[in-house]
Amino acid sequence: MSEIDPRSLLPLTHLSYQVLLALADENRHGYGIIKEVRTRTAGQMDLETGTLYTALRRLKDEGLIDIVTPDERPAGEDDRRRVYKLTPFGSEVLAAESRRLAALLGVAVEKRVLPEAMV
User: Which stretch of DSSP H or E encloses residue 55?
Assistant: First the structure.
């Protein structure tokens, strides 16, 4: 567990949350992250390259993601592409933000803003 409380970085921006989610199940290069987010959000979030790489730099500086080393890359993968991975601390922050959002949705269900079946 990290010395920094993951909750201290909350709330995450929508962009940061989506990038971390894209890396939760698979290491991806920038275009792979863009495609994953576009698909998962049914096109509602279409990341611009410059915006994504600014976010990736910030997430790396915060210790939430890292670049996959050459020995961690699958055989045959293009070495010119940077591949990103979620760090253990990034996983903690992603889980903390997901719990925070789930609690908010729980309130929306209690207030009958959303049907229980949606949560």
Answer: helix 49-61
